[in-house]
Each structure stands twice: as C-alpha cells, then as structure tokens.
Specification:
The complex is a heterodimer of chains A (113) and B (111). In chain A, a hairpin with a 4-residue loop joins β7 (61-66) and β8. Chain A has no helices and eleven strands. By secondary structure, chain A is mostly beta strands. Chain A is globular, with a radius of gyration of 14 Å. Chain B has 111 residues and is an all-beta fold. Helices cover 0% and strands 59% of the residues of chain B. In chain B, a hairpin with a 2-residue loop joins β7 (64-70) and β8 (73-78). The chains are: A mainly beta (113), B mainly beta (111). Chains A and B meet through β5, β9 and β10 of A and β5, β9 and β10 of B.
Chain lengths: 113, 111
C-alpha cells in the first residue's frame, strides 16, 4: 500500500465549475500537508500548505485536512482554463533531521472554456 | 525557478554511457533532493543531501550516485545509463519547515 494515494484522473470540467481533488494517506507521522501545481514541462510549484485539521482558504482555492480520516482535499471555485495543470498532494515528516516529502501520483486537470 | 537551476534541460544519451546532471542553488539551503517523475509513478526520491558531503538514499537509488562538494551544487550521476532511466529529473531544495522549491527539470532520454 502506498503511503499517499491520489486518483490520477484525468479530470475534465467546464469553466466555472467547482473542482474537488482528493488524497488519502496511511502514515500518522505526517506533519504538513501541501498541494503542488505543475504545468506541462515545468517543475511543481507550491500552491497551498496546512498543518492542522480544518480548512484554509486562499482566493479561489481551499485546502481541507481531516486527520482523523487521513484525508485531504483541494477545492477550486470558479475554475479557469489557466487552472489546467497536474495537481499533486504532498505530505511531510521529519527523519534524521531532514524534511521528507511523499507525493501522491498527481491528478491531471483540464478546465474547458 | 528563482534560486535553483538544473542543467542540462534536455539530454539524449546512449545505453551504457555515464551521465551527470547538475543542480545549482543560490539560496544557501542545507537540504537538496533529486527526484524522477514518470507516468503512473509520480515523483520518486532518488537521493538527498543534508549538507556538504552528507547524502543518503531515497526509494529508487539503484543505478544512481550523487555528490555534493559545495553547498550550492548537487550532482546526480548515472554510472551506466539504461533505458529504464529515461525520465524527467527534478532537483529540489528545502530551507524551511515545509515544502520544497523545485527546478525546471531535466528531460533525459536513453536510447
């Protein structure tokens, strides 16, 4: 069983739709929960992070963490064609003083005009 | 990406030849990482470094070695490239309590 599971999609929705992306995890030692966005032929860039259960908003994006269920989500409101990218969830724990990130497989999202 | 550069951006090499990829940072971060990204597998950690001359293996380290002689440079070497090492390679740096900053990647093709 992978430590982090993410549905790879692909996911295609019309412009303006609400998008929900999800990951589950098995390791209770994870401390920080992140979402990265990766455009085609680019490196991943940090979109949002959180370290506690609950919701965190940033503009059209909301990150949600439920530690009791080991489940995290990213919601995108009023989705735009520029949101088309691969979204990767990631979680960290500390081992030998180094921050270790474990990534989900990534969900490929397309927003259709 | 600001503060981190990878070279080369693209490379085609023959099976059995050695290949070295370079990651250079200007952020003076302690931690540096090499990942490979493949369809169906996502990002997988190859090796990481927690200081000059201090490195450790990740989950897919077989066939790869690394070196870090200066804080700013982290080299990934494929001693004898194989077709299974065709991939996109990303370097990342970390100096904060969460998250990494990634480079733009090196697209390597082994023929």
């Amino acid at each position: 069983q992978k430590e982090v599971e993410q549905d790879p999609g692909p996911l295609s929705v019309p412009e303006g739709a609400i998008v929900s992306l999800n990951c589950t995890y098995s390791n209770s030692a994870f401390q920080y929960f992140m979402w990265y966005r990766q455009y085609s032929r680019k490196g991943p860039e940090l979109l949002m992070y959180t370290y506690s259960s609950g919701n965190k908003e940033d503009g059209r994006f909301t990150a949600q963490v439920d530690k009791s269920s080991k489940y995290i989500s990213l919601f995108i409101r009023d989705s735009q064609p520029s949101d088309s990218a691969t979204y990767l969830c990631a979680m960290t724990y500390i081992i030998q003083g180094a921050q270790k990130l474990v990534f989900g497989q990534g969900t490929r999202l397309t927003i259709n005009p | 990406d600001a503060g981190i550069t990878q070279s080369p951006r693209h490379k085609v090499t023959e099976t059995g030849t050695p290949v070295t990829l370079r990651c250079h940072q200007t952020e003076n971060h302690r931690y540096m990482y090499w990942y490979r990204q493949d369809p169906g597998h996502g990002l997988r950690l190859i090796h990481y470094s927690y200081g000059v001359k201090d490195t450790d293996k990740g989950e897919v380290s077989d066939g790869y070695s690394v070196s870090r002689s200066k804080t700013e440079d982290f080299l990934l070497t494929l001693e004898s490239a194989t077709s299974s090492q065709t991939s996109v390679y990303f370097c990342a740096i970390s100096g904060q309590t969460y998250g990494y900053t990634f480079g733009s990647g090196t697209r390597l093709t082994v023929v």
